[in-house]
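Hi Y.,

Following your request, here is the sequence exactly as I used it, all 385 residues.
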Amino acid sequence: MPNHRAFKDGMKKTFGLSDIRFEYAAVDCTTKAGVADCYRQAIRNALSRGDLPDAAIVIVRDQDSDLPDSSNPYLHSKAFLLMAGVPSQEAKTSTITRNPNELQYALQNISIALYAKMRGTPWTVDHRTTADDELVIGIGTADLKESRTAQSQRYVGITTVFRSDGNYLLSQLSREASYSDYPATLRDATRDAIIDIRRRNGWESGDKVRIIFHATRPPRCIDFARLMREAVEATDSAQNIELAFLTISHDHPFALLDPCQPGKGTSSGRKGEFAPDRGLIVRTGRYSRLVCTTGVPLIKRPGLPLPRPLQVHLQRGSTFTDLSYLSEQVLKFTGLSWRSTLPSADPVTIYYSELIARLLGRMKAIPDWSPALLDTRLHSSKWFI
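Below is the corresponding structure, written out as tokens. Let me know if you'd prefer a different format.
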């Protein structure tokens, strides 16, 4: 869109791509088959033409986008494409038919997400570390209960791994496990991820390696620090490893106000009065900090509650204890969401784990869905963005 600032250069020039080729696959919804089956058939025909595409854009009508998971055309399309090793991006017809002033921002976000799903890195953060290598690992959980009333419940451990500058390395999914077996399963998945990164990054004997763990809700009744320490020790590494265990959450009793903040006037009123600036870090104890991740520009409209800061808590058992460094790193990782140009309220270590958990839970409703390829061909793809 040459006359619009947000998407002036297009995806090809912005990300330095070459030889982009689009192949179109029409979906025939005039048959008696359900709309999800129509999409699956169109994708099956397209994938049988030759080489697999690097990514797919699935366009859905607005009235179909809110269908239940078991018959949702985009969810069926995403699951079918993922099982073929192809990441996908959804776009509604109402999105791609907006007026140009709005469309430029929608296309900007779509292109960022697509580039990331094709293993690109849209941007990183400026980060200096005193270690030879530093990993930041997010720990999450997918609850795969069949329904709200179902008694049986299965869990999947989710491990997302980043370099300290925000480069995404991989995600690791554990096998499904019951609640009693879940901690050991999560430990083993984390161990496998660290072994993979050790081999990929070429760690040598005696290297100083720092591993920082982020979790929002560690397993209850389990010593999370001990569990992750066991995962590291099980790798038989010959490196000098420093560990930091952080719980990061919006669930806490604190609120922060800035009485000097007048907010910002809009056509429908004033927004963000008394909201602290993004980046404010407040000490609340020896091992805890509050981090403001949403300032006035990020508050969408007047009348919304003041955004809650993140609470960053350093757990016992940590051998790297510089909480100022760790809190600033958490803040920087909120700026690494590749779903748009705006930062997220949570660091991507937590945010990406939640996106994976949400999709795994929803795709449980797809009859022939299998997540096997997520740990193979799509191991380092941001398929979930």
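The radius of gyration is 22 Å.

Thanks again,
Q.
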